[in-house]
TrEMBL record:
This is SMP-30/gluconolactonase/LRE family protein. Gene3D superfamilies: TolB, C-terminal domain (2.120.10.30). InterPro entries: 6-blade_b-propeller_TolB-like, SGL, SMP-30. SUPFAM superfamilies: Calcium-dependent phosphotriesterase. It comes from Methylobacterium ajmalii. Belongs to the SMP-30/CGR1 family.
């Protein structure tokens, strides 16, 4: 275990999640799922702007320099960056009020994978869906807390996890569509005593960075699933990393206060968003293809 992260944003999120960089604007966007906020802050620092949301959203992706896509409790929304206006693009499990969206990432071809889960983390309620140019398909079902969705830079494989099972899987994907090809295989198994795999990103050279919920750690895994590094984090419930900076060489990690004692004397930085004190070879997520 090495390192000690600094604070990128001092605001404590109830459930900070889904960070994504917008390199064209030089900003990081992330969500406080339970607080119904979209958070925004320049890479270079300054104030964090909070945007109230009419729905509970869990992930954000860029469409272009004027538009974001939000994965939310009842579907995918387009959000105008300047005005804040939101428009439902595609319904997703709108007939299942017991579920909400969770982790999501964009494949290099522009397809989105988005997880859904039970609002009370009910066993087996989770799924992962694929969205590409207006079409929605369900890829995987029977999960509990889908997480760690990330893609190789060349689009040839994906990873995803069920946090409840402590398992990260790897599956081949079609570079042209982002659809899975063949069967998934276990990539990493995290013992319950060490926490649970949460959000993840894959860098330019294939290194997987995974936030370990309950473990106060950001872990790096090689292409064979071997843990090659663990960086200590100042909060136990770290949730998801993202690459920021002009060269995508800095990692930030969100975290959560959900379920913790309000005093949090032993976890006083919970809910903050952190910078990681190592230089990395990251990459920016591609734009999502909506049409």
């Amino acid at each position: 275990m090495s390192g000690w992260a600094g604070i990128f944003c001092d605001r404590a999120c109830i459930l900070g999640e889904g960070p994504a960089a917008h390199p064209g604007l030089g900003r990081l966007y992330w969500l406080d799922i339970l607080g119904k906020h979209l958070c925004e802050r320049p890479f270079s620092g300054g104030a964090t702007t909070l945007h109230d949301l009419p729905v509970m959203a869990s992930m954000v992706a860029r469409v272009d320099d004027a538009t974001l896509l939000l994965g939310a409790e009842d579907g995918l929304y387009l959000r105008d960056i300047d005005s804040g206006r939101m428009r439902l693009l595609a319904a997703l499990e709108a007939d299942r009020p017991e579920t909400r969206s969770n982790d999501g990432r964009v494949h290099p071809c522009g397809a989105l994978w988005l997880g859904t889960m039970g609002r009370e983390a009910q066993a087996g309620y989770g799924a992962i869906h694929w969205f590409f140019r207006g079409e929605v398909r369900t890829l995987f079902t029977g999960l509990t807390i889908p997480n760690a969705i990330a893609f190789a830079a060349d689009g040839t494989h994906a990873i995803f996890a069920d946090s409840e099972a402590g398992t990260i899987w790897r599956v081949a994907t079609d570079p042209a569509t982002g659809l899975p090809v063949g069967d998934r295989k276990v990539f990493v198994q995290v013992p319950a005593s060490e926490g649970a795999p949460d959000g993840a990103v894959i860098g330019a050279e294939g290194l997987v960075w995974n936030a370990r919920w309950g473990g106060a750690s950001l872990d790096a895994y090689g292409p064979d699933g071997t843990r090659v590094r663990s960086i200590a984090m100042p909060a136990r419930q770290v949730t998801c990393p993202a690459f920021i900076g002009p060269d995508a060489d800095t990692l930030v990690v969100t975290s959560a206060t959900e379920g913790l004692d309000p005093d949090r004397t032993d976890d006083r930085f919970a809910g903050r968003t952190f910078t990681v004190p190592v230089k990395v070879k990251g990459r920016f997520e591609p734009v999502v293809r909506v049409e």
